[in-house]
Amino acid sequence: MASTSDIRNGLCIKYNHDIYKIIEFLHVKPGKGPAFVRTKLKSVTTGKVIDNTFSAGHKIDDVRVETHKFQFLYHDGEFYHFMNQEDYTQIRLLEAALDRPDLMKEGEVVTVLINTEDNLPLSIEMPASVILEVTHTEPGVKGNTATNATKPATVETGAQVNVPLFINEGDKIKIETDKGTYKERIKE
What is the mean pLDDT of residues 7-13? Predict the structure, then answer.
């Protein structure tokens, strides 16, 4: 049993007969009234995100998890298939358990959170950023670079990302996985 002082990003808790992962939290101490913790929780079974407020000192039922490195193999419709890098066992997860499946390419190594009670996978943690190749984008217009203008681009996984005007087809770009935003162009 943990309390609200143990809340951190990535912590998995049992709440309302489901397991949720904390994606955001904020400790609030108003000038008047008791302190509380405002959280954003994501269900690891359905992928639904809810907002919840816990009063300070509230007991929460945390879930013990282990992390393992898995390699993304392929997806067939609703399921994504992964292989454990230590013992080569394979698992499959529903798309709802993944934060940004559109940024994952085959061969990508991700961290899988596994519930120690029943050895079932809970969720996937992507690397902080991924490097993907731009497969389609409109050419940038010369002289239109004085502002931070962006244009849509499609990357090799099929995801849409807004990029600066100087990015062309064939360029490799770094994308932040938590926001799905362009970070920088990668030079070969």
Answer: 84
Q: Reading across the β-sheet that carries 2-3, which strands appear in turn?
A: 2-3, 59-62, 12-15, 18-28, 36-43, 49-55
**Would 2-62 and 65-125 be classified into the same CATH topology?**
no
CATH T-level fold of 2-62: SH3 type barrels. (2.30.30)
pLDDT tens digits, one per residue of 34-65 = 889 999 988 877 778 899 998 888 888 888 88
- Which one of 3.40.50.300, 1.10.10.10, 2.40.50.140, 1.20.140.10 gives the CATH number of domain 65-125? 2.40.50.140
Q: Please tell me whether residue 103 adopts helix, strand or coil conformation.
A: helix
